[in-house]
């Protein structure tokens, strides 16, 4: 049997005729934690026993329950401080983020604190099993813990043992700070060096016999814990960092999804010099909150700007593309519409409206009525393009004219007249002026004069069925 197992009380031991101990859940140089059962409330509890191994001992294997003290200097005073801190912590039972204190008492020549049993796994185990967390998740989960630690400091208590081992991840994915066994100051720091120091998470001043410990020491530990949550690795031990700091900065970790300002805030929290850190958890919270809020506002501002610009572009494009009279200028001072002449289903898809809405728009003459553009004296290709953009079709009739070839001489509908989209406009297009034949060298032979041809009837304007010219 190990020496530690000899010290721990045996399963089945009853304390205060109410709490039955089941097994040991953790043990350190400053105390032993048991899982127990509350006979009164019929619920599981955590029991913390004050057991500084540098001062007391016990042989539980032989049935001993009382500890015997071999280093009696200020031991009784240490016991009083231990329970006094338990009383102070019990005032914070309603604070989210720290374990609740249910009871505290003297027994077996030592003292016990009964705490709420938190179901879950340690943060260390959670990270080892699942890997590092996203930056926004870390900040969100740590917020209640920071609030709780702030209140602990306000009550004159410093935890001094914050680490992923002492933070539980509950079933509903929340963090709870536990194990306040090192939260009291015992006879000077030099007597509890092995208790106060945890590699990677204890501040440099906790390694010195006369180091100035304070809220900034907990700031170091909580920021080192966040470093572990983000990177999956603990910072190097503080004493090693003093000699040669090889701890990789979060700023150099591209895989860590967190802004530079928040990374800087965490790294400042693990500065080796205590006066270069945030002096209180309140300052740390403010730095994280202000940085986070500024970034959120900036991201929100950019999103609003982007949405506004896109919306404006969409409105302008939609107005130009779809609204009647909002297209290109047709040459007559009017502007062509974009959806005129489209089938109902197509128009509905383009406008994102239902067929009924489009029908109402058609009935309201906002889609199926267009104005006839003036294409006279324009080249045929240009005239066709203008009519097409206006939602109109065209029929070309070739006529002799003094105008240049392929020039529109006339149109059967007056410019500016409203007509139904898809209507056919008849255009008279010049074939060009016929050239005069060159005179013959030889005199023409005598021949019977040809009969005089009958004159062709002149076409009437607007009659689309009586042209004698070439129809395309």
Strand order of the largest sheet: 1-2-3-4-8-7
Q: Which segments are poorly predicted (pLDDT under 50) over 5 or more consecutive residues?
A: 185-195, 323-337, 361-366, 463-470
The topology string of helices and strands comes to HEEEEEEHEEEHHEEHHHHHHHEHEEEEE
The value of Rg in angstroms is 46 Å
State the end-to-end CA separation.
110 Å
Number of helices: 12
Largest sheet report: 6 strands, antiparallel
Strand content: 15-25%
| Average pLDDT taken over every residue | 80
Decide which structural class fits the backbone. alpha+beta
Oligomer state of the chains in this structure: single chain
Count of DSSP strands? 17
Instruction: Give the helix proportion (percent range).
Output: 25-40%
Label the overall shape. Answer: rod-shaped
Folded structure, characterized:
- The longest helix has 42 residues.
- A hairpin with a 3-residue loop joins strand 1 and strand 2.
- This protein has twelve helices and 17 strands.
- The C terminus is likely disordered.
- The protein is α+β, with helices and mostly antiparallel strands and 472 residues long.
- The strands form five sheets. Strands 1-2-3-4-8-7 form a six-stranded antiparallel sheet, covered by helices on one side.
- The termini are far apart.
In short:
By secondary structure, the protein is α+β, with helices and mostly antiparallel strands. It contains 12 helices and 17 strands.
Provide the fold topology.
Blueprint: H1 3-7, E1 14-15, E2 19-27, E3 31-38, E4 43-50, E5 56-57, E6 68-69, H2 75-90, E7 101-107, E8 110-116, E9 120-122, H3 123-130, H4 135-154, E10 167-170, E11 175-177, H5 193-196, H6 215-231, H7 238-243, H8 260-269, H9 281-322, H10 344-351, H11 355-363, E12 369-371, H12 380-389, E13 393-399, E14 408-411, E15 418-420, E16 424-430, E17 470-471
Parallel strand pairs: 13-16
Antiparallel strand pairs: 1-2, 2-3, 3-4, 4-8, 5-6, 7-8, 9-10, 10-11, 12-15, 13-17, 14-16
